[in-house]
Structures are given as C-alpha cells and as structure tokens.
C-alpha cells in the first residue's frame, strides 16, 4: 500500500526524500483522456460512419442514415453522440484543471495536496466519462452529474488553497 501511495505522489519514498509534484503527469493524462480516449473518431471509423472532410458533423448529417442502412444501431448512434459530448466536456474542463494544478504548484501548495487533487479529479473524471458514455437511463445518468461536481470541486478547492498560500506569504512578509 505504501508503494502505491508513493507512486501516486501522496507519500514520500523515504522520510528524507521529498514528494514529487505530479501535476505534469496528471495534466498529460487529462489531455489524453479528452483528446484521445474519449474521441469518437476511432469508433466512427470502425462503424464506417466517419467522414474525414467534416468529422464533427458525421453523426448529425449521417447518423440517422447509418441507422436506416443498418451500419449501426440507434443505441450505438446515441452512445457515439454521448461520447462526443463527454469529449467536448472534458476539453472544456481541461483549462480549469490545468489552471488549478499550475496555480496550486506555483503558489507553493504542498505536492501531496496537488497530487491528491490530481488523483481525485482523475477518478471523478473517469467516473464521469464512463457514466456519460455507458449510461443511457435518465435516473442513473445523475451519476455523471455527481462526478462532474466532485471533479470541479477538487479544482476549486486547490485554487482556494493556493490563494490562501499566496496570501499567507504576502501577509507574512
């Protein structure tokens, strides 16, 4: 368990070694989540509904025809649309996450706090993505909203802690 906590940046490898700040690793992870893993492009290519000329309009222009022609099912079309929405939301939230991680780091927030924020945000956003893409029942889709709020709350908390850290340095000088 100790090695897992060390790998996640929540504990030092030894009492004399510092905890590394993993902000860059978490930022790269969320870039990949938003732009690669949640990108619907690969699935659209597998289903043969990808049009390279204007891929952002594939599902709107050709989705219903693909269902009528039997290329995909209505459920697959709806899942692809949810995947595109999850990707768009991840791209939109990326700036808040990057800002919080950088601000916390530059404000001198301890690495364990920055890393804990990165981990909590990652868990929340993975839950969000899974819930968004896979859940099609309205009652269960509330899981997505809870995950969204948890993720954003972790970023807002780190911004707050960073502000407190900066103000304590200013008032102590």
From TrEMBL:
GO terms for cellular component: membrane. Its main location: membrane. Gene3D superfamilies: Membrane associated eicosanoid/glutathione metabolism-like domain. The keyword Transferase does not apply. It is found in: Membrane. It comes from the Eukaryota. Signal peptide: none annotated. The chain crosses the membrane at residues 22-38. Keywords: Membrane, Transmembrane, Transmembrane helix. Pfam families: MAPEG. Coiled coil: none annotated. PANTHER family: INNER MEMBRANE PROTEIN, MAPEG FAMILY PROTEIN. This is MAPEG family protein. It comes from Friedmanniomyces endolithicus.
């Amino acid at each position: 368990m100790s090695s897992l906590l060390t790998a996640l940046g929540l504990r030092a490898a030894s009492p004399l070694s510092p905890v590394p700040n993993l902000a860059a690793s978490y930022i790269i992870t969320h870039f990949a989540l938003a732009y690669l893993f949640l990108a619907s492009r690969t699935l659209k290519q597998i289903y043969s509904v990808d049009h390279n000329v204007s891929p952002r309009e594939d599902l709107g222009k050709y989705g219903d025809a693909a269902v009528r022609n039997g290329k995909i099912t209505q459920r697959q079309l709806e899942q692809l649309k949810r995947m595109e929405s999850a990707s768009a939301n991840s791209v939109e939230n990326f700036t808040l996450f990057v800002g919080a991680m950088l601000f916390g780091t530059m404000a001198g927030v301890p690495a364990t706090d920055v890393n804990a924020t990165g981990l909590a945000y990652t868990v929340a956003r993975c839950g969000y993505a899974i819930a968004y893409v896979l859940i099609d029942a309205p009652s269960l889709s509330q899981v997505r909203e809870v995950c969204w709020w948890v993720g954003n709350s972790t970023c807002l908390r780190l911004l707050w802690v960073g502000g407190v850290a900066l103000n304590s340095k200013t008032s102590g000088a």
